[in-house]
Amino acid sequence: MKDFFKKPSPLFRRRISLLLATSAFSVLSACGGGGGGTVDSLDSSNETPAASNNNNTSGSARPSSKLFVADSGSATIGSIINPDFSFRFSIVDRLINGPQTGLAIGNSVTGMAVDNLADRLFVVQATKISVFDKGGEAHGDIAPSRTLASSPTASFGAAFLDSGNDRLYVVDGQQLQILVFDNASTAVNATPARSISIATASGASPGSLKGLTLDLVRDILYAGLVDPQGCELVGIDTASKQDGAVTPNRVIDDECAENIAIDTTHDRLYTVNSGARVGIIDRASTLSGASAGDGFPVPMSQSLKNLAYDTTRDRLFVIEPAALYQINHVRMGFGNIPVQVVTIPVARALTAIALK
Fold this sequence. Notes:
Blueprint: H1 22-31, E1 67-71, E2 76-80, E3 94-97, E4 109-115, E5 120-125, E6 128-132, E7 146-150, E8 156-162, E9 167-172, E10 177-182, E11 194-198, E12 208-215, E13 220-227, E14 230-236, E15 244-246, E16 250-253, E17 259-263, E18 268-272, E19 277-282, E20 295-297, E21 306-310, E22 315-320, E23 323-328, E24 339-343, E25 350-355
Parallel strand pairs: 11-15
Antiparallel strand pairs: 1-2, 1-25, 2-3, 4-5, 5-6, 6-7, 8-9, 9-10, 10-11, 12-13, 13-14, 14-16, 17-18, 18-19, 19-20, 21-22, 22-23, 23-24
């Protein structure tokens, strides 16, 4: 496996220290920015972040960030303007970190979603959902624009944004429901417009509810369930109309889908489940009763936690606690797909990722 990363072809390993730890953030803020973009440095701009301006940017002329990665171990969200590790060293361009952000060690970021057109970042933690307007420009110790929802008894998890209908879907692992918030762009301290409770194939409530994604073209909701009998990846039709108790239209696979990404155009799902492989499910909208197995290993990985799919460039970004993987040309099939590895030695616990 070591030889795999020594080849001079695209199959290589590239090391970059993104320095997402709180100590690194503090040093960068005190210095008024990061280094010059070299390996093992973090470019955080040449400006000292403002303390409480949610429109604060890393230089007003700089483009908005596209990739967001949450390091819950250091209560930090780092973002990258041009997330492509194939031909150059990408570095973190902006950091959201500090007491005003609402991020805190011990209160992990469990999910994120981005409104591409409005540049709005939704940050999900166990008991609250925060919104950062102009999230792609957010940098420093800034307060969220508002709290979309909060509940001391909730266990919010994976999230999916239907920006066209201004609707946010969020897993509540405590209640074993998927909560649907309307008017997500403006809602404050909202209650869900709908709550979807999903039964397993046996008709029982699942032991836990994990991954979530939607096919907005076919109006299908996909969810990962776990019960004492095993795992189920289920599909629910007419997702936009579902409310209350729902029996899945089909059990697609016995894949343990902790998190799910979708390629709607090609009717394909990608899944991770804290293992060292990415699962692939083709013909997801019609498939039923398949067995887990299709997919590909991610070399050097141990516990893949979350992922995001770039439809335009056909690439996946996958995270585990201390590493970010870029997988190009993922549509090519199965087997040894080229992988770029971005090691993050000071990251403590990468838990969530979102991509415009």
